Amino acid sequence: MKAFEVVVARNSRHAVALLAERVPTAKVKVIAGGTDLMADLKFAPSSHAPDVVVDISRADDLRHISMTDAGLSIGALVTHTEIMRSPVIRDLFPALLDAAHTIGAVQTRNLGTLGGNLVTAVPSVDSGPTLVALDARVTLLSPAGQRAMPLADFFVGPRKTALKPDELLVDILIPRENLGKPACFLKFGLRKGQALALVNVAASFWVDWDRNVFVAPRIALGAVAPKVIHASSAQAYLEGRAIEPAAMAEAGRLAVGDAKPINDFRASAEYRRDLIAVLSRRALEGAYALAQSKRSGKVAGGLQASRRGER
Ligand SMILES: Cc1cc2nc3c(=O)[nH]c(=O)nc-3n(C[C@H](O)[C@H](O)[C@H](O)COP(=O)(O)OP(=O)(O)OC[C@H]3O[C@@H](n4cnc5c(N)ncnc54)[C@H](O)[C@@H]3O)c2cc1C
Fewest CB within a 10 Å sphere: which of 79, 120, 224, 251? Predict the structure, then answer.
């Protein structure tokens, strides 16, 4: 591993100042939990290795889970374990808790941050689908100020995001209009734990209970395209349609056409297509089950958490 300088940021503004100072003349990387970056550094060819690493792990202003006028704001430094332990997230978005629980093992979840997970932008990123299905936005900070964009646009391709070298991801916002929107996340890997997703899916929608129809349906797919994508034709098909098992199954079939799964040593494209159809349908069923239990006043706690008996 090539030697590099480490500079420690006191807070997000300091981190951005350090980036502004160093980026013009050096290869600079940010480190949060380090679960991805340390592996990259170990194996990176020296031409790609950074000269400077800006450590943001002590920037406590990035560590919040807070309700704002705009919605639920989750700081980039919040770890997967903190997401799993957050009563607000458990109440409003149990699917996020389910997604966090599937990431690596305890040690990875204790160190790994939401921001780091999203910036790595691997197609199978497990935090991605639920947040995309909830129309989450990300806030980026640079010396020029702040800009925000939908998470779906932040992901550009495999390991590529819209982040500029002097920008820091500071928070992830789930907009106010989606607070409590029923959502469900499902992941299928080759093992129960410590597995990359062959396919991961999240679905969310509101229910118009008078007409029992889908309102603002979203299906987000991971690991089956260069980045996390909306299953746009499935979403368009469901909007305003009666909530019935046949409609959910058809949306699953349509979602297959929205994806571009690959053949690799883990699974064939054909197998992944079958998974997309099945998991999309099941995620819709899960979101509907959650909507029904919320309506009847039963406490929600995550579909997979309830299957594990952890509710
Ligand atoms: C054994 C193991 C198992 C894993 N299993 C899974 C899994 O099942 N699912 C899954 O999705 N991931 C998995 N991961 C990947 C990883 O743990 C997560 O992506 C984690 O959330 C990364 O967060 P981090 O804070 O450790 O990021 P770091 O390693 O610190 O950083 C990752 C990248 O993001 C950049 N970065 C970090 N924070 C910011 C920020 N705020 N602003 C700008 N850039 C930033 C860094 O420069 C770096 O390029 C696994 C990793 C390991 C080692």
Answer: 120
181-296: CATH topology: Enolase-like; domain 1 (3.30.390)
Q: Tokens 């550009």 identify what position?
A: 156
State the Cα–Cα distance between residues 163 and 154, nearest whole angstrom: 7
Say how many Å lie between the CA of residue 38 and the centre of ligand 1.
10
Residue ID of nearest Cα to ligand 1 atom 7:
103
Q: What residue segments make up the domains of the chain, in order of their start?
A: 5-55, 60-177, 181-296
From 296, 143, 282, 136, select the one nearest 207 (Cα to Cα): 296
- Cβ–ligand 1 distance for 100 under 6 Å, the answer no
How far is Cα of residue 145 from the mean position of the Cα atoms in its chain? 24
> Which residue, judged by its Cα, is nearest atom 39 of ligand 1?
116
- Closest ligand 1 atom to 122 CA: 11
Task: List the residue whose alpha carbon is closest to atom 2 of ligand 1.
Answer: 104
168 DSSP β-pair partners: 141
| Size (the chain), residues | 311
Question: How far from the centroid of its chain's Cα atoms is residue 163's Cα?
Answer: 16
**C-alpha span between 109 and 300 (Å, rounded):** 22
How is 270-290 classified by DSSP, letter by letter? HHHHHHHHHHHHHHHHHHHHH
The sign of the CA dihedral 285, 287, 292, 297 is positive
| Closest C-alpha to ligand 1, atom 18 | 117
Tell whether the model's pLDDT for residue 253 goes beyond 80: yes
Q: What percentage of the chain has pLDDT greater than the value 90?
A: 90
The angle formed by the CA atoms of residues 38, 225 and 274, to the nearest 5 degrees, is: 115
When pLDDT is averaged across residues 162-175 and rounded to a whole number, the result is 98
CA angle 96, 304, 137 (to 5 degrees): 15
CATH node for 60-177: 3.30.465.10
